[in-house]
Amino acid sequence: GFDLVRLLLIGSEKPRLQLMAEPSNGDPMTVEHCEEISRALSALLDVEDPIKDAFTLEVSSAGLDRPLTRLTDFERFTGFKAKAETRHLVDGRRRFSGIIVGVEGDQIVLRAEDGEPESSDEARLNFGDLAKAKLVATDELFELAKSGKLPRPVSAPAAASEPAQTTDSDNLNYPTTGQDPES
Description:
Layout: E1 2-10, E2 16-23, H1 31-48, E3 56-60, H2 71-76, E4 81-90, E5 93-104, E6 107-111, E7 122-126, E8 130-135, H3 139-146, E9 172-173
Parallel strand pairs: 1-9, 2-3
Antiparallel strand pairs: 1-2, 4-5, 4-8, 5-6, 6-7
């Protein structure tokens, strides 16, 4: 199956429904996966018709500078650089950038990139207060992606034995918590 990373409806004159997904087992997203999701979702949307006007459906992978929409995304990418924006001021600001230190309860811990591991330059952000967050594409992420060694989803097995099989839209796993769709 697949996990939903983000779903956005953009535009009013020529609406686009953008869906970002990833295989639940942690395998890289392929063009074939996007086609499979697109076919299943198109069939479902044709029947349910939740959007009254004509729209374009776009299905894609999350990419290296992927949105971080679940607490497990922050756990998965601990040690990597991220940017986050909060809905409310935290210590006098809304925008944060740094290395993901980890997750403590429902808080994301980011350390300023030039801060030492035990530095007071750590920001603790409540997950529910995030307006948006994303990984920063770095050379390290690029090299890991190129070698097929990106961190696997927290719930995924260490090594996938079979490719993801999805035959209908019922196999899409939607996150139960998320962030503002403007991320």
